[in-house]
Write a structure and sequence with these properties.
Layout lengths: L13 E5 L10 H10 L4 E4 L4 H4 L9 H12 L3 E5 L7 H6 L26 H18 L5 E5 L11 H15 L2 H8 L23 E3 L2 E2 L2 H29 L5 E2 L1 E2 L8 H5 L6 E3 L8 H13 L6 E5 L18 H11 L2 E7 L25 H16 L12 E4 L2 H9 L9 H14 L4 E4 L10 E4 L9 H10 L3 E5 L20 H5 L1 E8 L6 E5 L2 E14 L5 E4 L9 E8 L2 E6 L1 E2 L2 H14 L17 E8 L2 E8 L5 E4 L4 E3 L4 E3 L4 E4 L4 E5 L1
Parallel strand pairs: 1-2, 1-11, 2-3, 3-4, 4-7, 8-9, 9-10, 10-11, 12-13, 12-14, 14-15, 15-21
Antiparallel strand pairs: 5-6, 16-18, 17-18, 18-22, 19-20, 20-21, 23-24, 24-29, 25-28, 26-27, 26-29
Helix pairs in contact: 5-8, 6-8, 8-13, 10-14, 14-17
The structure holds alpha-D-galactopyranose (GLA) and zinc ion.
């Protein structure tokens, strides 16, 4: 394995985040510098939302204030991620060039306001955004404390304006070449939608094919629109990327992503990102496994390389219905959690809490009180001290997972717009069920997509792979033939990339490797369940119950216990050459997923990183391992409210305390504490 730091310009763990001094009078800047340094912060992200002040009109630019800020932070030894400011266009631009404004999904044309507000196909935006990026690159190219470019900010949303409509037609022409191909792919004979001219095609939105935000009447067309919208916004990113690269080829470029964010196919984007960075804002209900899963997704879209935690709040957000404080120790724990999954850099939004507008109640390193005398500041400072102690030892280390979960944005789009079989179909949640089970078994997981190689894995779990990408079946077949374990679930292999259903029985080609075919699927209302016995225990069958026929009766592991399909298989295992393919025809309980995943891992001889399964609630204890030329780093995080005691499997050193430990030694980890064990 080769180990790659997220950035060659970095020798230690970067620690800092969004700093917006332009929102404050200059007198306060020196005080900021003092407080940031005291908090052991060594990096700031600058210039995220300053377009309006940097560019007062079409041909005027004013960099004086940014120059001052850049010089100030350089003088103070801070590294910089320099943002391009293009995530919110200036009011004058919207006023003089209304094409920059978006039209919403319901057809409402926006006025100036908010942010992340530009139409991706606006000629004005496409002219001025890359131009600003170019000017910034030209001006600051020689600042050797710039560690990365941060293009725009949290790209997202959709636009349904006329410029987007025109661009959509061109995108379709490029994809389908002829209207015959398009008519076939979209199945337009349905409801008499045959198109004779490209100009007859309109955006599928709430004025045309949709009757609710996720209820469309033309699935294929809607899928293409989601893809097109993601591509359009991606092209905005590329426009800026290209300009910057020409001027500073050696400075890596990124944009901050948002984990499981539906609108953008990040896997496509990641190919154009020098490293991945993302913003982690879990909701109050989010457990440790769900956060971990997002980190794994973000690492996975860039070949498992280390990434940057671009933003997290040090304490509280302002945009949840109930903005709970992060309890003492949680910010630290979640920062290490990011690192446990591959982060090489820990950042916050933001350094100093703003005075007005909607983020005035958002957490920051420096609060409105303006001093170092707060709980949050002290926690930030303490973590900074620890990261400083860790130096760069861990940078570029990788996880070596033997289990992969398949996740694909195109499939997500397809399931989002699917009409039937149930409105409770939830792709992300189905992935999470399997992920949580593996998490509780303390087994590292990669989240991978259609183009990722399978060579390193022993188990591939592909929940609800409703749409299988062209050619993916051949990969799965080879994987299983060579000895891998493949797991498929209800709603697998039913459609092609255009949302045309497979003929000849579900799950399409996968019938072969799974040794079965699915005749019908029953959708159960929320309060109904069937049941089955698996490995001696009874479990519920919920949401969907597939009515399946097996090629070989012996493959059946469990049958339904009720209803007219009582006795039909619900869990099966088919041997295919050297490997095995499981089919789980329903949705069940977390206890079932734990049991299943445990059995799969035993069968494939995949062992937990540390065996701590005897603990009360294994899902509150997280274990991962990262490895590089310096060694292997085992992270054990205690998310529970109780102290725990574990025994360490090999001789090694506990980082931070520098304690040397012998094999089998028992060690205590306090509630919300963690250890990093180097072996
Ligand atoms: C996002 C944005 C930041 C800030 C935070 C607040 O992540 O990128 O600019 O608004 O949310 O939580
Ligand atoms: Zn538009």
């Amino acid at each position: 394995m080769t180990y790659k730091k997220f950035n060659d310009r970095v020798e230690e763990i970067l620690y800092g985040g969004d700093y917006n001094p332009e929102q404050w009078p200059e007198e306060i800047w020196e005080e900021d510098m003092k407080l940031l340094k005291e908090a052991n912060i060594n990096e700031v992200t600058l210039n995220v939302f300053s377009w309006a002040s940097i560019q007062p009109s079409e041909d005027e630019y004013d960099f004086r204030r940014l120059d001052k800020i850049m010089n100030l932070v350089r003088k103070n030894g801070l590294k910089v991620m320099l943002a391009t400011s293009t995530a919110a266009h200036p009011p004058w631009m919207a006023h003089r060039h209304p094409d920059v404004l978006r039209t919403e999904f319901d057809g409402k044309k926006r006025k100036f306001g908010g942010r992340h507000n530009s139409c991706p196909n606006s000629p004005t935006y496409r002219k001025y955004a890359p131009l600003l990026a170019k000017k910034l690159a030209e001006r600051y190219k020689d600042y050797d404390n710039i560690v990365a470019w941060h293009i725009s900010n949290e790209y997202g949303g959709v636009c349904c304006c006329e410029n987007c409509e025109k661009a959509f037609r061109l995108w379709l022409k490029d994809k389908y070449k002829t209207l015959d191909n398009l008519n076939y792919a979209w199945n337009t004979e349905f409801w008499g939608h045959h198109f004779y001219d490209w100009d007859e095609i309109v955006i599928p939105d709430l004025r045309s094919e949709f009757f609710a935000w996720n209820r469309t009447q033309f699935q294929g067309m809607s899928l293409d629109y989601f893809r097109f919208n993601s591509d359009s916004i991606f092209r905005n990113y590329q426009d800026e990327y290209r300009e910057i690269k020409k001027i500073t080829p050696d400075i890596p470029i990124t944009t901050n992503l948002m984990g499981f964010y539906e609108d953008l196919d990040y896997r496509k984007w990641a190919k154009y990102m020098d490293f991945v960075s993302w913003d982690n804002y879990p909701s109050n209900e989010c457990g440790p496994a769900e956060i971990a899963m997002s980190h794994d997704l973000m690492r996975g879209i860039h070949n498992g390389d280390s990434f940057v935690l671009m933003e997290q709040t040090p304490s509280v957000t302002n945009w949840l219905p109930y903005n709970a404080l992060k309890r003492p120790g949680i910010m630290r724990l979640w920062s290490y959690q990011a690192m446990a999954h591959g982060a090489d850099c820990i950042q916050f939004f933001q350094m100093r809490r703003t005075r007005g507008a909607c983020e005035a109640l958002h957490g920051a390193v420096i609060d409105h009180v303006g001093t170092n005398n707060t709980r949050v500041y002290r926690e930030v400072k303490q973590l900074g001290l620890e990261l400083h102690k860790l130096k760069g030892e861990i940078l570029g280390s990788r996880l070596d997972s033997k289990v992969a979960i398949y996740f694909d944005w195109n499939n997500w789009y397809a399931l989002r717009v699917s009409a039937g079989p149930s409105i409770n179909i939830d792709y992300k949640n189905e992935i999470l069920c399997y992920y949580r089970a593996l998490f509780s078994e303390h087994i590292d997981v990669d989240i991978i997509g259609p183009s990722d190689p399978l060579d390193n894995y022993k188990i591939l779990i592909a929940p609800m792979m409703f749409m299988s990408q062209d050619g993916y079946y051949d990969k799965v077949k080879k994987f299983v033939s060579d000895g891998g374990t493949f797991v498929a679930t209800y709603l697998t292999g039913m459609i092609d990339e255009n949302y045309l259903f497979k003929l000849g029985g579900y799950p399409g080609e996968y019938k072969e490797v799974l040794g079965l075919w699915v005749e019908e699927s029953d959708a159960l209302p929320e309060d109904k369940a069937n049941s089955f016995i698996y490995d001696g225990t009874k479990y519920p069958a919920k949401l969907i119950c597939d009515l399946t026929h097996l090629d070989k009766e012996d493959d059946c592991l469990s049958v339904y216990e009720e209803d007219f399909y009582k006795g039909m298989p619900v869990v099966s295992r088919h041997e295919f050459n050297k490997g095995k393919a499981y089919y789980i025809g329903t949705h069940s309980s977390s206890e079932f997923y734990r049991k299943l995943v445990h059995n799969l891992c035993v069968e494939q001889d995949i062992k937990p990183i540390i065996d701590i399964s005897a603990l009360d609630d294994p899902e509150q204890i997280e274990v991962t391992a990262r490895e590089n030329y310096n060694g292997k780093f085992i992270f054990v995080l205690n998310h529970s409210d109780k102290d725990i005691e574990i025994s360490l499997p090999q001789n090694g050193t506990v980082l931070l305390s520098e304690e040397h430990i012998e094999n089998g030694h028992r060690i205590k980890i306090k509630a919300h504490d963690l250890l990093i064990y180097k072996v």
